[in-house]
Amino acid sequence: MTERLGGCLCGAVRFAVSGPLREVVFCHCSQCRRQTGLYYASTNAARADVAISGEGEITWYGSSAHGRRGFCRQCGSALFWSYEGAEGISIQAGAFDQPSGLQPGYHIFAADKADFYEIADGLQQFAKGRPGLLTDG
Q: pTM to 2 decimals?
């Protein structure tokens, strides 16, 4: 498997993923919209498959009772989303170096999307979270 690399805008945080990645999930919940300005496009990897350099530059914000969001304390880039006790970690799809090789999957919390755009890519949409997907939106 090819190692996939990525990082924040300023380069203080870099990561390498050595294992498989989930398809990209597009989350339109109000928390994700407020953090990113639009929606959260993320993939997921096993924590054991993710190596992070500059981990001390990551600030973790507890955005809900079970979820937390990791961002670079230097440049503010949103990088990670983590569900308490989960074996995986979500990684912002846009943080990967190109070409990423990522594939689009589906939309969650589509009922909560902002009013200034439409979801018109033909991917499956779920009004809330998808059954079996850990979310806290």
A: 0.91
